[in-house]
Amino acid sequence: MPRQYFALALLLGSSFGATAGDAGNFHLDIPMLTAPAEIDGRLDDAVWQQAATTQLTIETGPGENTPAPVMTDAKIFATQESLFVAFVAHDPDPSKIRANLSPRDRNWGDDLVGIKLDTYNDARLAYQFFINPFGVQADSIENELTGRESDAWDGIWYAAGEMTDKGYQVEIELPFRMFNFDKASAQEWGFELIRFWPRDEVHRLSTQARDRDNNCTLCQLGVVTGLENLEQGNDLQITPSLVAGHNRDRELPNGDWQDETDVDVGVDVRWGITPDLLLSATINPDFSQVEADAGQLDVNNTFALFFPEKRAFFLDNKDYFDTQMNLVYTRNIGDPDYGAKLTGREGQHTFGALVANDTQTRFLVPGNLSSSVASIDKESQNLVGRYRYDVSSGLSIGALTTLRKAGDYHNYQFATDIKYQPTDQDTFTAQYSVSNTQYPEGLYKEFCGDSDNCEIPPGGCERGDCDINERVLRLLKQEDFDGDLLRLRYQRETRNWYANLHYQATSADYRADLGFVDRVDFNKFVAGGGYIWYPEDATFNRIRWGGDWDITHNDAGEELEREIETSLELQGKLQSYMEMGLVHRSRVGLREDKSILNIEDNTTLFHETFGWFYGEFWPAQTIKTRLNMSYGDTIDFANNRPGTNTRFRPGISWDVMDNLALDFAWEYRSLDVAEGELFNASLGDLRLNWQLSLQSFLRVSSVYTDIQRDPSLYLYSTPDSEYKGMFNEVLYGYQLNPQSVFYLGYSDGFRQDDEIKSLTQDEQTLFMKISYAWLI
């Protein structure tokens, strides 16, 4: 049966099963009051005396629903506009409380209290809010459908904390305007109160038990009632912004400085039309990224690097567009003039639509062994549409479409997906997507490298006769082409056992240019499983051992890879977490200067055996260390031959003072071939954050790269023997809330290579941003 018909049969023929789990046994009725509380961390407002009270009496980790080792009291009430929560966190030794004045969303590892809310009580999405003893906020969204959690979302809410001689206490206000929820007059929300108590181990304390034999966590939330006639006000947020920057750059070694000044005024509008329908729009948007991405070494890589989205407009209700595959990757929309987004939910129906232009059109051109980035000097129009129907609490079916067009280029995609949980332990997911693409004339020349022969000779090409293989030329020259993707996955997870089967088939002509699909022309099957132990009173409180086997072919039936892997995961004392594994595989190599789309002239099969390790632990209350390393066989992709890879990446996070934090990571990589060391590369990434107050900070970042090569060992090219680069940034910020901000920063860049004998500055930037969110 063709895979598209098999996918359709699976999507339409699934039974409409029962829920994957029950809703938990914790229930709390929240009183509706008229007076709010003042959020100052003191809990001295009279209104708290009328609040509902409860305690976090259960430890869900590492203990398995055992009595909580410390006492935590909680109070909760609501007005028509906001939900108010207070925690009193008792501690037998307050001197060991871990708390730092840190940036928003960076307080993980501290003592924390928080709340999880599923506003539709259907185990699909949950908002999470956590606060440390100094009132530092962290928020995120847990998505049960994709199995992912994102802390990129930022809501506007209020919190304050205060240390006491018996522990600490926290007050929180969560305005209902932040949430999407049903329009019903009486609400019933999924709910959990949580405390993280980090000592020798991290203790997770809760209001309710968690069943480890149930792989759906949101299905096990408790329920709160009593919320009635909630109001979001006008729920209109208008955020004007001013961004100004002056940039200087030059061509090295002797180019003159070129100056450019840019001032942009824009406005974002966020309108909650109803509690479950949100409209976001932007004109001349500020899509500047204030903080530099973490450094990555791009050596001996054949696939494009992935960077997370950080821009507020795209992150608002981002989860409405997520599917099992990364088919919507909004960083592909690099420089828009406008954008609009509508997201909503009505009963069992969830939907979203996004439209934006892009003055710079960039997209991935993927293959089965590598990918590359292409660009078109034309404005593109971009559209994303998403719909999901929740048939029952255990079954969801969705559809997604993306459209991108710029002149004679286009990429259209349509996808369907399903998630089905017939039992607490079993999960089936499937996704099928089709695409139609047309590349602009001449795009293929971007992939010819230094070749002077980019044309098909009369009569066509035989293998080895053309500098770039015939299939690439024909694909990039034809009017348009169609492709498809099929992904099937089954998982079974019990308390102690887990198993999974995975199959993915992606045709050579499939494209998802508004997503991040960097590999095509492959069919992969994976089977794996393992066992989990939970030792009591031992060095490690959780031990997981497992492995998998996989095999991959291209569309022509040629084997690309066959792999077997085993791994061990340990969690325990000193808040330690370790993973280690051993891999043996056979796979096909690829010369970097050859075709990016298939392996016609690269059929050598290489055999690799290597080991890897990742670990992190807290040797002291203020110091966290981590180490990532691997060693063993690899492929020298530049020359299509075997080599030996060494990779070593240690890191440290040090809370120098309560408000001063240092984070440093260093990565070293080397590749040895039979004739000697082909290259060694190192990268240092230093971040220093001085948190002046809850609202303001001063941040210094520096990324240094050093790559040394032996050009005599390169068979097909002559690279520079050395490259050095440095990027520095100094940033001052004041954040009244995530959308009301002031930033002032300076950054510069330096470069050195065989022609430029010392680190020489080639870029300088001075920038400022002001924005203010008017809540109407």
Structure description:
The chain has 3 helices and 42 strands. The chain has 776 residues and is mainly beta. The strands form 4 sheets. It has a 24-stranded antiparallel β-barrel. Strands 1, 3, 4, 7, 8, 9, 10, 13, 14 and 15 form a 10-stranded mixed sheet that branches. It is globular, with a radius of gyration of 27 Å.
In short:
With 776 residues, the chain is mostly beta strands. It is 3% helix and 53% strand. It has a 24-stranded antiparallel barrel.
Key attributes of the depicted protein:
globular, 24-stranded antiparallel β-barrel, ten-stranded mixed beta sheet, 42 strands, single chain, 53% strand, mainly beta
Helical segment tally? 3
| % residues in beta strands | over 45%
Mean pLDDT: 88
* Main sheet summary: 24 strands, antiparallel, barrel
Radius of gyration using CA atoms only: 27 Å
> Helix- and strand-based class?
mainly beta
Q: Count all strands and give the number.
A: 42
- What is the percent of helical residues? under 10%
Tell me the span between the first and last alpha carbons: 57 Å
Write down the oligomeric state.
single chain
Low-confidence stretches: 4-23, 461-471, 592-601
The global form is globular
